[in-house]
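Next comes a concrete protein, fold included:
___
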Amino acid sequence: MDCVILNRNYPPGAGITGNSANELAAYLISAGIDVQVVTVGGEYQGGGAVPVAVSGKVHTLGHLYNGKNKFIRLFSSLYEGWKMSRKAVALGVGPIICMTDPPLVNFWVALAAKRRAIPWIYWSMDLYPEAFASGKLVTRSNPVYGYLKRRLLQSPPKGLVALGPNQARFINGEYDREIATVVLPCGISRSDEAVSAPEWATGDDRIILGYAGNLGEAHSSEFVRAVINTIDPARHRFILSVYGSKAPGIIEFARGREGVVIVDSVAREHLTFMDVHLATLLPEWDYVCAPSKAVSAVCEGAAVFLCCSEESDNWALLRDAAWRIAVDDDIDRSVERFLAHLDREAIAAKRAQARALATHLLSRKEQALATIAQMVAVNQIGK
């Protein structure tokens, strides 16, 4: 049995989606499936590479652009996705497991797979072209957007790997047929070895809150700003480690404030030293993505403070270990009320829930990987 996995980044390069692809490849290989991987070796802004064994036969194509200009990046992403899809079908094996980096690689794969009668499985780390509309690059009434949607719906995948139940329901609702679906949240992993506390977690018994991860178009910078502005430096310490389009403004706002520690990165195994991890998603990005760092934080035993809608998959999956405020509430007032009532007893209760939820998520991940292996087995070329 054979399959191909497509994603822009892949170990030894950095990137949570590449690490997820590598984990799947390792599992499939252990199940007796030959795995080939098509990537362009693109850089990922969100942190350094984690040393792991690279799984599968990797085909690394040349990337076109790694800069920050939106329009050049969009053009290069379209080209890279087209090139990756051509390479995948040229390998002559299937199914093709298509992730969503670069943007619209799923569009190219859907067209090529239909033309060549190769089954494909949609691993929806993000939704495209929906993300373009959520990011206000186009409107949903735009003819190009409409064309992309129509062509995608005309070439449905044989299987769907979704980030959460709400995203799975949304995607399935768009097709005129039922698609075999498995839910696999991104970020499920747990560090089992004891680690020393980082410097920012030592020295006193203040409650540690933090935001570590992407702060981009999909996230509320007002939420992070409100928490930083409201903390009591005598009771709280705030750890800030951000990248993304809204990061410079927050870093500038936070710099020099008492009780705030700005660091370049937070190692995954150090998430456990945060009492409360912040995560946020604007309602227009519901179903399109789900912040993986919130899942990682819970898996490391931390509680989560969410600013999102009830439709966010982070809330659907993590509510037992989380508190939530709505994005359209008075955020400053909601944050003030939250911090006024946040104490060690409340944190201990949520941390206990996080540990139990982490065990459940790890089990769910194993079940999901097994289901994906079954999808691959039943969707071999010629079956």
In short: The chain has a mean pLDDT of 93. The CA atoms of residues 133 and 140 lie 6 Å apart. The chain is about 40% helix and 15% strand.
